Amino acid sequence: VGGAEALQNFANWWTYYGNRNRAMIAGITNALKGLTNMRVGSFPFVDPPALNSNLTMYDMGYSTQKATLINAVRGLNAGGGSTPSRRGTAYMINQFRRVDNGAPVRYECQRNAAMLFTDGYTNDSGGNLSTIKGYFNGILGNPVNDQDSALGAPYGGPPFSGGVASENTIADYAMWGYLTNPRPDLPVGRVPIPSSCPTTGT
């Protein structure tokens, strides 16, 4: 039913969206193609770079840089059987702390965001987890520990707490990054707040 057109539609879907890896690549590249006023970087989550290495940022206002990034994303392979969510989160947070010429944060007024795409529960453990703890304790100068338990709902209480106090979770690393100013060398309070966002807590 549907003939050649339906078969072609299915072939297109299978080619670009037929599994999680292809669907992720299609979603990211479609989002990138219309961007201009933004700098973007990408790293393979299944095998994150060394925690203290620098991510390359690409200026979407330059067609050659955009093409380089899109081609790199197209080459991503989700295979490998690993879900190192803690390492990925740690690496992502550290990028915002950089002060070199290629750093993601350049100006006190710029908005910044990061996303991790994963399909499963983290399996960072043993030596990997010890490496991450040492990374935060040694390079950042203070342990992460339990960052969110004292914050109250929804962070330290229901529905996300699970009812059991824990530390060094992905949420703890993410919350550390949220609560800590990654660039204390820049003035604070300069990022414009959209008019649709409240300026006081509720």
Describe this structure in words.
The chain is mainly alpha-helical. It is built from six helices and two strands, in the order ααββαααα. The protein has a two-stranded antiparallel sheet with strand order 1-2. Helix 2 packs antiparallel against helix 3 and helix 4 runs parallel beside helix 6. The radius of gyration is 20 Å and the shape is globular. The model has no long low-confidence stretch (mean pLDDT 80).
Based on the model shown, name its key terms.
single chain, about 200 residues, mainly alpha, 6 helices, globular
Helicity, in percent?
25-40%
* Discrete helix count: 6
Overall 3D geometry? globular
- Widest β-sheet, arrangement of strands: 1-2
- pLDDT averaged over residues: 80
The SS-based structural class is mainly alpha
Please outline the helices and strands.
Elements: H1 3-17, H2 20-33, E1 39-40, E2 58-59, H3 63-74, H4 85-95, H5 127-139, H6 170-179
Antiparallel strand pairs: 1-2
Helix pairs in contact: 2-3, 4-6
Brief overview:
The protein has 202 residues and is mainly α. 37% of the residues lie in helices and 2% in strands. Strands 1-2 form a two-stranded antiparallel sheet.
